[in-house]
Amino acid sequence: MDRRSFLRSCAGLGLATACGGAPEPQERIPGETLALHREIPVFDLHIDTLLWMRWLGYDIAEAHGNPLPRASFFSHMDLPRAEEAGLRGAVLGLVINPVEVEPELIAPLRWLARFERGSGLEQTLATLDLLAAEAERLSDRLVFARSGSEARRAIESGRFAGVAGLEGVHGIEDRLENAAAAHARGLRMIGLVHFQRSAAAFPMTEPAFDDRGLTPFGFDLLAECKRLGIVVDLAHVNSRGVDDALGALRQPFVVSHTACAALQPNPRNLTDDQIQRIAERGGVIGLAVGRSFLGRPGIEGFLDHVEHVIEKGGSRAVAIGSDWDGAIVPAEGMEDVRALPHVTQGLIERGYGEKVLRRVMGENALGVLTEVCG
């Protein structure tokens, strides 16, 4: 079976599975909650659907099911399910093969780099062009947004706003001029590092890198992102690198997909001190839905992390940063984007009002994109 045939088979499974691989039905949510949810510009800071579009020919316009109900590491988002869920837009992650693979790169990405043709800037530009082509093909449903203002206009018109975000500067081959080239093709967010060291920073998953912070190139890139109007993403950056970035950033920024270390010890999660300092500097923290991020199972576990960020950093510091389609296994009840109305309902049940709901579910994320990118 070729890649596209495999995806057609996945789509043929429909939107529900016999093994419970879908969120609870929306019929259990009060009508007034659903109405409010659909008024909010719900926006996710990190979804990796572009990887599967590039690699397997995943058609974002089709409704897909879950091909692996007990280990659903992809097929979490498509436009029909986003429309059903009231998800109005997202930063779509570019997972790019490095030109040179370092030993610390995790096994699945090593395998991808060996299997897939293209790497570095070439693959970054090709993936940006893929998103542009899909937006042209689906112009009545999808917009490739180059700014926060454009994303808001797309949302107001009833179309999904897709913003392009790069995971790791190996995707620009560690050159500032390549950042400008990618920006010209529509890139609007850059993560300094992914799962292997880069010319800018070091990942938090390698203890050997703990005492190594941003490089001179990393500091130069922060300034270049400010000049170009690109949002800096500190996801995957180690603690020393986060400290360095917080001292140097002069523009709003994000940690696009993470959670709280106080609730779930994980090298990918943020400490309370980091949450407080990120909030003080105007950063926004996108909370991920993977089981390894959350600890406590289910939507209640996710809501615990939302509350913790609000407690430590305030309601302007938190957003959705699910990491759906990022080869993660979501927490029970958050198997795909259709969980989002249940998040809104859960926040209401915990006593949060409309102002906080709007911030958490979309306005904080769109605010950073608008302030940095226009």
Structure, described:
The protein contains 15 helices and nine strands. The longest helix has 20 residues, at 354-373. The model is unreliable at 1-20 (pLDDT under 50). The strands form two sheets. Strands 1, 2, 3, 4, 5 and 6 form a six-stranded parallel β-sheet that branches. It has a single domain, classed as Alpha-Beta Barrel (TIM Barrel). It is of the alpha/beta class. Strand 4 (160-167), helix 8 (176-184) and strand 5 (187-191) form a beta-alpha-beta unit.
Using only CA atoms, what is the Rg? 19 Å
Would you tell me the structural class of the helices and strands? Answer: alpha/beta
Strand tally: 9
Overall number of domains: 1
Assess the beta-strand content as a share of residues: 5-15%
The backbone outline, from C-alpha atoms, is: globular
* CATH-defined architecture: Alpha-Beta Barrel
CATH superfamily: Metal-dependent hydrolases
Helical percentage: 40-55%
**CATH class assignment:** Alpha Beta
Low-confidence stretches: 1-20
The overall pLDDT, averaged over residues, is: 91
Give a short overview.
The protein is 43% helix and 12% strand. It contains 15 helices and 9 strands.
Topology:
Elements: H1 3-12, H2 31-39, E1 42-47, H3 49-56, H4 79-85, E2 87-94, H5 107-115, H6 120-137, E3 142-144, H7 148-156, E4 160-167, H8 176-184, E5 187-191, H9 216-228, E6 231-233, H10 239-248, E7 254-258, H11 272-280, E8 284-287, H12 291-294, H13 298-313, E9 318-320, H14 340-349, H15 354-373
Parallel strand pairs: 1-2, 2-4, 3-4, 4-5, 5-6, 7-8, 8-9
